[in-house]
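Supplementary Methods, section 5.1.

A reviewer requested that the exact input to the structure prediction be made available. We therefore reproduce it here, unchanged from the version used in the analyses.
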Amino acid sequence: MTEAPSPSISPYTALSVAVLAVSTSAILVRWSTAPSLIKAFYRVVFTVALLAPVAFTRYRDEFSLISRRDLVFATGAGVALAAHFASWFESLNHTTVAASVTLVQAQPLFVVVGAWALLDERVNRRIVVGIAIALGGMVVMSVSDFLTPSGAPQPLLGNALAVVGAITAAAYVLTGRSVRSRVSLVPYVVVVYSVCALALGVVILGRGDPLVGYPAREWILFFAMAVGPGIFGHTVINWALAHVESSVVSVSLLGEPVGSTLLALVLLSEIPTVPTLVGGAVVLGGIYVTASSSVAT
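The structure derived from this sequence is encoded token-by-token as follows.
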């Protein structure tokens, strides 16, 4: 039930497309004026709707073969993904795109820490140095608004929510990592995304946010979030993980903050402050050191 060892499409080409796709996510989220949970909910719902025809025609028999244990872990991954979307989407309401996307991209650091704490995986000295560098960059980014105001409404809150988004994204990766070695991509992501949508839906109903009544522009943005960052972004990244080392994928995703920052500059006229750029560069450097070192552990 694992992916074919020799894909017809180069994983590196696929990763390039995925990085470009996920770089649009923050822009689409910013353009939408709907509540954060609504944006996250419909992004996932539309992603499931797009995958469902393929899932239940080509992979229908595989759903019944998913073990109870794998289903439990996939459910946990879905809940973690819901928490990731909820915290990160809300982060973009309070801080700059550059800060939010850079901090949320720090999830490889928390994957390494989680794997060490929960799975007893070894951590070498270079990984520790990389984490320390990245944490230093996060501190610089978090206090940068006191040095050079960015104009963001609540940068500290937004930055904190982005870090929560990184931690929950790491939980999503760690929870689902072993399942992906036994379950094909499409059945796996359909289960995870469905659980994610259900979890978000429960919270939305509890809060009383309206599920309908949004203008056509919002529905177009919801659908674009599903097609771009959802299908061509995260789903392609999940596919690539079956063909290249996870460290390669982690390092490749460092292009997302760069792409998102450039798009925010062009499309949102959002100019990041110098401390944000410096701190962001330090964070990305620390992530690179950590991710590239994980091969040797």
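The CA atoms of residues 84 and 165 lie 4 Å apart. These observations are discussed further in the main text.
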